[in-house]
Amino acid sequence: MIMLTYGAAGVLLLLVILIASRTLFRRGWYAAAFFVLLVGGGFVLFGRGAYGLTLFVLIPVFLGGLASWAFHPATRWRAAGVGALAVLAALVAFLFAGRDGLICIAMAVPLAVPLGGLGGWLVYESRDSRRAARGGVAMLLLLPPAGVTWDVRAKPPVFVVRSTIEIAAPPQTVWKYVPAFSEIPEPQEWFFRAGLAYPKLTRMEGAGIGATRYCELSTGPVVESIEIWDEPRVLQFAVTETPPPMVELSPYGRIFPKHLHGYMISKEGRFELTPLANGHTLLAGTSWYQHGLWPAEYWRWWSDAIVHRVHLRVFNHIRGLAEGDFSRRPIANRPAGFNPAPRVAR
User: Fold this and answer.
1) How far apart are CA 308 and CA 314, in angstroms?
2) Partners of residue 223 on adjacent β-strands
3) How many helices (H) and strands (E) does the chain have?
4) Is the bond into 295 cis (omega within 30 degrees of 0)?
């Protein structure tokens, strides 16, 4: 439906142009017909869940170029500005149409808006050259089939995020709070409070290899099957169920865009506990995950940052539990050379 909204925004833009200037009547109707084709393609892509290059790259470039062609700006910078504003208006319309939430729209802005500016600039540079215009038209005819083919066939890569924290307690103490831990206080970070899924607690059914671990997120449980149980060094698990990655922030309350289900998928996780010379433990956590959004590397910037902050929320809670537990032990029972000062997570 995001493509439908792009098209609707473009049609409204062109209707304004047609009313304002009768000299653009024929051009406006050509552009409107093009947007009708985009709407039909949008239904097909959205039905397939193809959040790919066609959606996030080609459509913004086309929309920016079409706006530049319709408005006929006087300079290249104005052309780029018109293209960028057209895409921004489409994203805002998409938000108020209730098709997606504020967080996802905000994450799309740094990608889509500059591409709209690029489309506007390209049309400006080619409009005074018939050869460049013919070449541009030929390229435009080839790009949509190529983009759709990529979107349908591309396999999402698996990304890896690793985070570490130093805990002022030995591995035997830290391990007690790795497989399962008590409820974490409600988050104060704005991004979690805005709707991103955050861990609340974990619980175990059984122990050892084959046991089931449940990590309760604010959006539902992550179900994990234990593959390695090497106490107190390594806990590794495969993820069998992943809940939605967020609750969308929308003017219309709860909305359920397709990308909330089956796109951000956790594949595997691993905890490693390494004893340090000062008696502390280096706790490392690694997550393997994938998402079905393209360009994959662009969306990875956001998803890696989110996964890392989820790690830190869990790590800081485990650190508090382990250090509190260990501090209650008699000093005589602590390792020689033990330094109680912990270090910051990274």
Assistant:
1) 10
2) 214, 241
3) 10, 7
4) yes
Residue 181: CB partners within 8 Å, gap ≥ 6? Answer: 201, 202, 314, 317, 318, 321
The answer to whether 3 and 41 have CB atoms below 8 angstroms apart is yes
Q: Which domains does the chain carry?
A: 2-153 (no CATH), 159-333 (3.30.530.20)
For residue 139, CA distances in Å to 131, 132, 133, 154 come to 12, 10, 10, 21
Nearest Cα neighbor of 69 from 42, 94, 35 is 35
Closest CA to 284 of 306, 311, 244: 311
Indicate the pTM of the whole model. 0.82
**Nearest Cα to 14, choosing from 2, 26, 31?**
31
Give the H/E segment covering residue 44: helix 25-48
C-alpha count within 13 angstroms, C-beta hemisphere, residue 318: 32
User: pLDDT at position 303, please?
Assistant: 95
DSSP 55: I
How far apart, in whole angstroms, are the C-alpha atoms of residue 218 and residue 318?
18
Q: Which residues of the chain have pLDDT under 50?
A: 1-24, 39-40, 43, 332
Q: Say how far residue 126 (Cα) sits from the centre of its chain.
A: 35
* SS3 label, residue 222: strand
pLDDT in tens, 190-204: 999 999 999 999 999
